[in-house]
Amino acid sequence: MLFGRRVPFLSHIFTLVGFVVTVLTVAVTNVRAATPTKVVISFAILSEREAALFVARDQGFFRKQGLDVELVYVANAPVALASLAHGDSQMNTGSPSGPILGAMAGGLDVAFVAGLVNKLTGTIVSTAEIKSPADLKGKTIGVTSIGGGNWAFTMLALEHWGLDVKRDKITIRVIGSDSVRAQAITTGAIDATQLSAYSYAVALKRQGATILADMRDWGVPYQGTTVLARRSFVSQSPDVAEKVLTALVESIAFIQDPANKPAVLKSLAKALRLAKVEEAADGYDIVRTVYERRIFPTPDGIRNIIRLLGASNEKIRGLKAEDLIDDRTVKRMEQKGLFQPIAK
């Protein structure tokens, strides 16, 4: 009799415990779902070309995708690659460079997963005394580093003009970032440089400098701004990779809508550390025209940099552009219709 009474009692206890466990499991699951996924994205250049990152952060597009994104400026490609390799960052944006292609040739499993800007951009700016590309003969051109993205832009510009560094006795001098090189133009430390930030170029022009070229006008294929990630990361976290790129696509659409100009200017001025928001206006007008909506990497643009760097590096010369691209994420996004123009 007593034993018979215990069975319903124990049954109730077990039922209550089961209910509590279920409630706690649901609660933990909901908390996890509500906690944004941490993602670190490093970027290599402080210019308008990175506006998609800045706007995605400031307008909450990353947060909308359930991501807690930290943007970290890393101008040094080897450091950025080491960060990717060790998992300290998950993605990197910038232009292909010697260190990046060298790492790929050496077996690091990084790949180009998206192409935000797929052509040469930026300006070639010189001192007032230089009036044409031919005047660069015998002069000094400043770059960020030898083999870096800015160096590649510079070499392709000289190639476009039919100039040769050795033949035309052009000195390539390592100076530093866009802001440092812009300052070097004003002091006469260098005669010319390629600037990714249009805001700096416009400021120099107002001071009398010469704009020798706006490279957008050439239409030269180049992986101007790419998104790099390890293939293993894309395989292990395909949803996170897609969410990052989806936020960037939404950011590009936002930037290209003229109605959002004030908000974009504010983001640019803040990121580029401009004294006044109005100083970002010229760069904004330009960046709206360079972004891709269909953010596939460009094999032709990658071939251009392989050809340039491969002239002095056998391992890089042996690379094939198609092998360096991992476009499964953008293909999946295209299938979902995420690249369609946003209806007004």
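Second entry:
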Amino acid sequence: MTIKNRFLTSYIGGIIIASVSILSILCIVFYVTTGYVPTPKILYKTFTKQRSLSPEEELAYVELRNIAKHDPDKLLVQDMQKKMQQIEEKSLEVVIRHEEEIVYYSEGLVEKSLVVHFPMFDTNNIETKGTIDNAGGLYRYIKFDFYYSDKSKGSVLVLKKENSFLEFLTKWGIIIIFFILLVSIAAMLFLNQLLHKTIINPLENLGQTMSEIKEGDLMIKAPTMPANTAREVHELTANFESMRSALLVSIQEQRNLEKNRKDLIASISHDLKTPITTIIGYVEGLQEGVAETPEKREKYLNTIHSKSLALDRLIEELFLYSKFDAEAVHFEFERIQLAKFFTHIVEEFQLYNREVQLELNVVEDVYVHIDRMQMNRAVTNLIENSMKFKKPTEPLCMILEVIVVDDLVEIVIKDNGQGISELQLPYVFDHFYRGEEARTSTTGGSGLGLAIVKQIVEKHNGHVKIQSKLHYGTTVTIILGKA
């Protein structure tokens, strides 16, 4: 069942349940108090019975009753007509009955209807009040039954035409009920149309958009909702639009990952093929006797050895990079004083690379939470990278300093090397990037060093940035939280 039909069913059901409940309560109350099952006629008669007489009704009734008690035959003479007219001038009607014959009735009453609807004779005058229908008009009456002198039955009625709201309901009740039902149905249809406009149509439009997105059209936006659309539908549309945007971002990221995967495979193939090709060439040279002298054979073997070492380093770094990328490397963080940490790194490098001038500027009381081994690897990669791209005409000078800015610690590594061009600078942290002119691996790099540095720093909830200018050196800054 559609939402529209569910709303329609709920409206109709609500009207029926409310009506039945009210009627049931009224019927139960009426039955408990009166002992009768209520019908419109019973309700009306019960209501009129309980009403007290007006002074005019009371006076006319008392006069006629006294005559009926003391001289009932007087009611049959013509002289009583004057008395009747005096009573009728008070907007009352009078009816006198002898046995089954109506001997007198006021002008405006219908005799045949009086005969049919005349109340039953009651010797004891227990039921003296009631309502009588005369040709479609309702009259409230008070009755007195008596016997004429010849013991024949007689009755006198004093009637007053009912102009109350109750009579109106009795006459027009069906039309009123029909009108109320008509108004209820019209209101129900109006509400249903309003809901269709503010809920159903927007949801149908949103569903159409979802169908188009399912077919692959992710660029289609959610339809604009009218201002009077339900708040929940607005929220649903907003959430759908957020989902669509997130899906677009996810698909774009997936495409980027796919492109990176293809680039990675291409780069691995290139970087593995180059040293392997060289090794194969030199091995075949040895097998074919091209290197006929001991010096040439030694040169071939040294080349094979160096290429094998480069290949081994490449595989090791590639394995490390893939472990970082798969989050398979466990980090053990500890609170470390940077002065001692960097002093050890500088001393180690100066021990094996005396031609490198490395200056250390670190404040004694600066602490950070780091993984000692992984951060050592990151700093070592940066220093080795500077050594690979130093200027051939002057010695390499490096400055390693720590700057504290509020709650952040900046580790700055600056060199006077070859520098990086502005075109290459945005890509230096990408895997296997070494610049097109360096793709021959003459520098001995794998193109993974800076990519590994970036991964290590990000695992420390930090970030790394680089500044460089061709021929004017490079500055790499690692930013971490202060411990």
